[in-house]
From TrEMBL:
HTH araC/xylS-type domain: residues covered: 477-578
Statement: the UniProt record of this protein carries the keyword Repeat: yes
Pfam families: HTH_18, TPR_2, TPR_8
Highest taxon of source: Bacteria
UniProt KW keywords: DNA-binding, Repeat, TPR repeat, Transcription, Transcription regulation
Swiss-Prot/TrEMBL TPR repeat ranges: 249-282, 283-316
Protein's recorded name: Tetratricopeptide repeat protein
């Protein structure tokens, strides 16, 4: 509530910190940053909030700052009955910003608990950062520009954050955000992927040295392991660690990405739906929903999701590519050609227009125009647009049926470790090459657990036989150990089925005959084991029993106590008491 843009940086930073703090509370589903910020400066009713975000409660407020004083007003609104059930004003010294963030987060959490029921709340939700307030404000300014996600603002934000690092070299956040900015530019085609990742890496390494255990550090490591190192097993490990620390839409989206790369599209959709639930106004989430339908060749269903993504963020570079692809692949090459020809702005700069039109000419058998497009695309192989140029050259040649040329290009891309290899893996345009030996070998080398190029399982009308139950039991146990799926409190039978690529009926039978358990018993056995290991760790001695139980994947006190006693034959309290001294510090 001032004309000073510095106040906007501060207010956005305060809001984001409170969102992150509340998201740490188990059993509390908190809408993520993008969807919350969508309503900034908009006049909106409680009913509209309820319908659009599917939330029962929302919090709104304002910040007024001056040099020596800050006034923060916060009010909580029940969206069902449309009434303000509390309002509070905080007059504080701006120098105590971290204490203020923690105080307001805890105050909101307590009021929520009074209103909606029991929640386990830690004593502290926001950890203080050891930097002067002036530097922290500069950091918020840099992050403000980076989160705009375009090239110009990203570079501006990076330069601000570099100055912050010069002044406070032990402050981990600016390193993570510079890494994020470069990673986003590489992924979005605003910089060559190899160059962007190379620039990002030293900042990530420094952030990890300073703060290895934050959810953001783990998420960044997951990206590196997937897109740079092509090690999906490690990528899942880091992403799941991030999810343990904080339930966030970008973590669910990231795991959905990894599953897509492997061809596990049903599982990918489950995780994406969770991302959309937390952040329904994030353009990238809608784009990715459309992308999954595109990969399954449901082009008519895909297009509205791409259009919704552009409605939310007109500068997002991905949706125009796939709107054109959907038109082309659904038998409308002339309509696709008109669409690509009408594109302006970011889509022109990133080769979408040139590449898309060339693909249309290939489909329309307009040889001369297609060859002209291919020649022009080849001129970009030595520029910053090498990734996009390779992608379109591969796709155009695939449409022309030049399979040997396609494989030669993919071999070059593989040898240069270009991330597009992973993105091309599930592409419907490349399906005609599925049984080409060299192509298949490259895809299986890049992604060993690759369901796109392994022999498809054929399902019988009857369910699993004895040998299959033994085989899939071992496979399921390994998946549970490798991916720690049980740490996800929302895990479902459908999720397990999608990891095994089996129908739900088969997995239900597998659990009953292979393990003599139903789904809940099977998953909660892992959670009890995890709890027993965690609860005795020195680092957890100051946590309550239920805090450790929630960290182990349980989402209900009643379920935890019931299953613990059923599996162990004793209560959690008695278990701790029987482990001499290991229970010290726990609230029984």
């Amino acid at each position: 509530m001032s004309n000073n843009i510095e106040n906007e940086y501060f207010c956005d930073g305060l809001t984001e910190e409170i969102i992150n703090a509340l998201a740490k509370i188990k059993d509390l589903s908190v809408t993520s940053r993008t969807s919350s910020f969508y309503f900034k400066n908009k006049t909106v009713t409680a009913k509209e909030i309820r319908e659009q975000l599917k939330v029962a409660t929302f919090i709104e407020g304002s910040v007024k700052t001056s040099r020596n004083k800050m006034r923060i007003t916060v009010q909580m609104i029940d969206t069902v009955d449309d009434f303000h059930f509390w309002s509070e004003t905080f007059d504080r010294n701006p120098e105590n910003v971290f204490e203020i963030q923690d105080e307001i987060s805890l105050f909101i959490a307590e009021k929520l608990r009074e209103h909606i029921g029991h929640l386990e709340i830690e004593d502290k939700l926001v950890e203080p950062i050891d930097v002067p307030i002036a530097i922290y404000r500069e950091y918020l300014k840099g992050r403000y520009y980076i989160m705009k996600l375009d090239y110009k603002n990203s570079i501006k934000g990076i330069n601000i954050l570099k100055e912050v690092i010069n002044k406070s070299p032990n402050f981990s956040n600016p390193y993570l955000d510079i890494n994020l900015a470069y990673f986003n530019m590489g992924t979005m085609g605003l910089l060559p992927a190899f160059e962007a990742y190379e620039k990002a890496q030293p900042y990530l390494l420094k952030a990890l040295e300073l703060d290895p255990n934050s959810s953001r550090s783990q998420l960044n490591l997951a990206w590196i392991e997937c897109w740079q190192n092509w090690n999906l097993k490690k990528a899942y490990e880091h992403a799941n660690k991030a999810l343990e620390i904080q339930q966030a839409d970008d973590i669910y989206l990231t795991i959905s990405n990894f599953l897509t790369v492997e061809g596990k599209l049903d599982a990918a959709r489950n995780y994406l739906d969770k991302a959309l639930q937390l952040d329904p106004y994030a353009a990238i989430n809608h784009h990715y929903k459309g992308f999954l339908y595109y990969l399954q060749e449901d082009y008519t269903t895909a297009i509205p999701f791409f259009k919704k993504a552009l409605e939310l963020d007109p500068m997002l570079p991905f949706p125009p590519i796939y709107i054109g692809f959907c038109l082309l692949m659904s038998g409308n090459p002339n309509e696709a050609l008109t669409y690509f020809g009408s594109l302006e702005g970011v889509s022109v700069k990133d080769l979408t227009k040139l590449g898309g039109e060339t693909m249309c000419y290939a489909k329309l058998n307009e040889t001369e125009k297609c060859n002209d497009g291919l020649k022009e695309l080849e001129t970009y192989l030595t520029t910053g647009l090498v990734d996009k140029a390779f992608t379109f050259l591969i796709l155009v040649n695939a449409l022309l049926g030049n399979n040997e040329k396609v494989v030669d290009l993919i071999t070059q891309a593989y040898d240069n470790r270009l991330p597009l290899i992973l993105l091309l893996n599930p592409s419907p345009i490349l399906k005609p090459l599925k049984h080409h030996k060299r192509f298949k070998d490259i895809m299986l080398k890049a992604i060993p657990d690759n369901l796109n190029y392994k022999q498809k399982k054929k399902y019988k009308q009857v369910l699993l036989d004895t040998n299959e139950i033994k085989k899939y039991s071992k496979e399921l146990e390994q998946i549970m150990i490798d991916y720690k799926l049980y740490l996800n409190p929302d895990l479902s039978l459908k999720d397990l089925a999608s990891y095994l690529e089996l129908p739900g009926n088969y997995v239900s039978q597998l659990l009953n005959l292979g393990f003599q358990k139903n789904f809940s018993e099977y998953v909660n056995t892992f959670r009890v084991k995890e709890f027993k290991e965690r609860v005795l760790l020195e680092e957890n001695k100051d946590l309550t029993i239920m805090a450790v139980a929630y960290d182990s994947g349980f989402n209900s006190k009643t379920v935890f106590n019931t299953f613990f006693k059923k599996i162990e034959g004793t209560t959690p309290k008695n278990f701790l008491k029987s482990n001499e001294g290991n229970s010290l510090g726990f609230e029984l």
